[in-house]
Amino acid sequence: MPIIRLMDRALFRFISLLTQLLMLSAVAAGFYQVIARFILESPADWSEAWTRAALIWTVMLGVALAFRQGAMLSVEMLHSMLGPRNKRWLEHLILLICVGFLGFLAWVGGQMAWRVRFQTMPSLDVAISWVYIAIPIGTTLAILAVIAHWSEGPRQAVVDDTVI
Q1: CA distances for 47 relative to 52, 79, 121, 127, 128, angstroms
Q2: 164, part of any domain
């Protein structure tokens, strides 16, 4: 079991680092686009496409990170009303719903990426499927994250007492 925990930790640290680098590159490309357009008066055609692609990848990888931390929609009111045994059954049900939805999303995303594999993004001169493939990769990683979070066992619900 320690080897699985080590692999889990290493994988999601790598995903976190990659997500941070993609976010940084999107911000840098967006900043460059503003400078090029309004100061240099010569807008770059690649920076907008790169920013969009990097943000799509950031979101899809960030979803996996959020699921790994347990930051997903949950039924806190129902969870707090149930006994310990029924709470675990509710967590099983939530796991099945999340994995089913994410699996469906991965399948549809894979179909989309396959369908557009011959289209290119003119400004970057790469296949647009490199952007669309973020959907099945991100959701597959999210499935692993949901299962890893669930396998750690029951947790206490965190109730936020802040008032908006």
Answers
A1: 9, 46, 12, 16, 15
A2: no
In a domain, 106, yes or no: yes
Give CA torsion, residues 88, 6, 57, 47, to 10 deg.
150
| Domain count for the chain | 1
Sign of the Cα torsion 40, 41, 42, 45 reads positive
Tell me the three state secondary structure of residue 41.
Answer: coil
Beta strands in 10-121 (DSSP E): 120-121
DSSP SS3 for 164: coil
CA 61 to chain centre: 3
Q: What is the pLDDT of residues 14-55, one digit of tens each?
A: 999 999 999 999 999 999 999 999 999 898 889 999 999 999
CA nearest 128: which of 111, 148, 114, 146?
114
pLDDT digits (tens, 9 = 90+) for 128-159: 999 999 999 999 999 999 999 888 877 665 55
Q: Is residue 19 in some structural domain?
A: yes
Q: Is residue 140 part of a domain?
A: yes
Return the biggest CA–CA distance within the chain.
Answer: 65
**104, HSE (Cβ side, Cα atoms, 13 Å):** 5
Print the domain residue range for 142.
2-151
Provide the 3-class DSSP secondary structure of residue 121: strand
